[in-house]
Amino acid sequence: MRFSIEDPKRAALLVIDMENDFVRPGAPMFVPMAYDMLPNIKRLLDACREKEMTIIYTAHVHGKDRGDMGLMADFWAPIGSQTALVDGTEGVEIYQEIAPKEGELLIKKHRYSAFYNTDLETQLRNRGIDTLIITGTVTNMCCESTARDAQFRDYKVIFVSDANGTMDHPDLGAGSMSAEEVQKAVLTSLSFCIAEIASTEEVIKKLR
Hints:
The chain is α/β, with parallel strands linked by helices.
């Protein structure tokens, strides 16, 4: 599947969860691949801003009262102990190198998908958006969940192969996988029936 971007005003760039707690080296939930792909996200931001496209950031956060955690606390120790992703702290701010500019949206979420219990779809529909370019972290969790939810809602999805990042997965009963193996598996799966897989350079060419 290949999607053209004939009208950039009908496309939006989603920057998923590029928060300090994921991107800053030494952070509690640091994802090395997310840090390494910062230059590609910068290039995409520049290209989309040049076309005056809609740019939407998301931040995964949880309140100090723990009322929005649910099972997230069971799967992620830093969330359960509130050493990461605590709403109102520096850790959930977007990494400074790619921080939102005035007029760009920031949507807070409490689950993997950016659509779940947020106003993302309302924001997209009101702007006439029909195509989403997805970047961010973590590839196989928040980014993939958002891509699948977008396709279920009939958005055309362009998933950027070198601007989504994941981490090594330990053996928790199904075997371990390196970040590179996880990345390949997700891209292959999404390409089959969910999204177009394109590199940063390929997306920029579309915009031109």
